[in-house]
Amino acid sequence: MIDLATLGRRLKEARQNCGVTQENAADTIGVPRTAIVHIEAGNRSVSTLELAELAKLYRRPISEFFAEEVQEEDFLVALRRLSAECDDLDVVEQEVLRCVQICKEGCRLESILERKPRIGPPAYDVLPPKNYAEAVEQGEEVAEAERLRVGMGYAPIPDMADLVSFQGIWASGVELPDEISGLFLHQRSLGLVVLVNYRHPRGRKRFSYAHEYGHALMDRKHYLTVTSKKHSHELVEKRANAFAASFLMPKAGVEAFLNSVNKGRGSRKTSHVYDVATEMEIEAERRVLVRSQEITFRDAALLAAAFGVSYQAVVYRLSDLGFIKREGLKGLLENLEMANGYLKLVGKWNQVGGQPGQHDRELMSQVLPLVVEAYRQEEISKGKMLELSKLLKVKGSDLAEMA
Fold first, then answer.
1. How far apart are CA 332 and CA 315, in angstroms?
2. Which domain-ending residue is among 270, 289, 324?
3. CB-side exposure of 245: number of CA atoms within 13 Å?
4. At which of 66, 101, 117 does a domain end?
5. Nearest-5° angle of CA 277, CA 280, CA 283?
6. Three-state DSSP class for residue 69
7. pLDDT, tens digit (0-9, with 9 covering 90-100), for 62-79
8. What is the Cα–Cα distance from 121 to 66, expressed in whole angstroms?
C-alpha cells in the first residue's frame, strides 16, 4: 500500500515534469492552491475523482501513482494516450507495432542462439528536474559523462544510429507523422527500444536518435515516451534536447572547429608572460582585423556538416555556448536557405539535409543476421524463416541464399 507521502511525491514529480503550476492543478480539480501543497506534502488525501483529473492533466495512468514498483502499462493504451492528438494515429500504431514485433522476434532468436542478454547502457540516476535550467544542466552533465564512457572525446560521432545499436538498444527509423520526432520504449520482454521518424532529414533524424538515447539513459523508469510538439514543454523533453545538443556537439569539439577556421576568438587578446630574468611580466597584445571573428552562415553551415546535425541545431548551440549573441542568432536563422544552398554548392548537403536512407536499415541490420544464423544452424525451419522475411520485408530466397 502506497502511503500519502509517496503518492504526494509522485504527483509532484508528474506535475513539475509537465510544467503545470500548483495553481493550474488546483483549478483543474476545483480546490485552493494550498490543497495541492498539502497533497504533494503527503498531508492530505486525494479523492478518486481528483486523482483521475490530475492523472489526465499530467498525462500519466493512475496505476503509476499507486504501484509498489513502476508497472508496465499496456503498450497500445500508452501509445494511444500519448499520441491522442496525432492525425495519423492508425499509421503510428501500425508502424510501431511492426517494429516491436521485429524486436520480439530478435529477442527470441538471440535466446535460441544463446547470445548474451541485452544489458544496455548504464542508467544515470538523476532526480526529476524542477525547472528548465536544472533540466538543461542535467542533460549537459550526462552528455559529458556518456561521451567519456564511450570514449568519443570531442570528435563528431560517425553514425548515431550505430552507436545506439552498439549499446544494446533496438534502434530503427519508422514512418511517423511529421509532428512526432521519435519515441523511447522500455519493456522487460524487449529491453530498450529507440524509434525515430525516418521521413525527417538526415540531420534532424540524427538529433532525434541522440534525444531518444538521452531518454534511455535518464528516463528508463518511464515505460514509454513520445517526442512530439505536444510534449515539447515537458522538462524531461527539454533535458533530452540539452543532452542531444551537448552529446552531438560537445563544447570542445565546437571550439576546435572554430579554431580551425580562425573564428570564435575575441578581437583583442592580451598575454601576460613571466620573465625569469627580470622576475616581472612581459605584456603583449594581439588585435585581429575588424569582423574577422564574426561567425557567418557559411561557418555555421560547415559546422553543421562536420557534426552531421541541422543548421538550426548548430545556430542554437553556438548561442548556448556564447559564441554568438541574440542578434547574431536571429541573423543566422534568417539565412537558413542561404546556408542550405552553400552546403549544396560545396557538396556537403547530404550530410545534414539529404533524404533518409533505407527504411528500417538500423533494425534490419540487427535482426536479419540473427534470422540467417538461426536458419543456418537449423534452429528455425524454412517456414519460420520465410515468415520472418515477410515481417522484415525482404525476399525469403535471398535469406536462404545468405544462409
1. 7
2. 324
3. 23
4. 66
5. 110
6. coil
7. 877 876 554 455 667 767
8. 28
Task: Tell me the backbone φ, ψ of residue 193, rounded to 5 degrees.
Answer: -130, 130
CATH code: domain of residue 18 = 1.10.260.40
What SS3 state is found at 209?
A: helix
pLDDT for res 74: 63
Beta-bridge partner residues of 183? 195, 226
Give the single-character DSSP code of 285.
Answer: E
Domain span at residue 119 reads 75-248
pLDDT on residue 41: 84
Mean pLDDT in residue range 321-344: 92
Determine the Cα–Cα distance for residues 23 and 26; give it in Å rounded to an integer: 5
Tell me the one-letter amino acid at 327.
Answer: E
What is the three-class DSSP state of 283?
strand
Contact 261, 300 (CB under 8 A): no
Segment 10-39 mean pLDDT: 88
- For residues 203 and 22, what is the distance between their CA atoms, to the nearest angstrom? 38
Cell numbers standing for residue 220: 528508463
Q: What is the pTM of this model?
A: 0.78
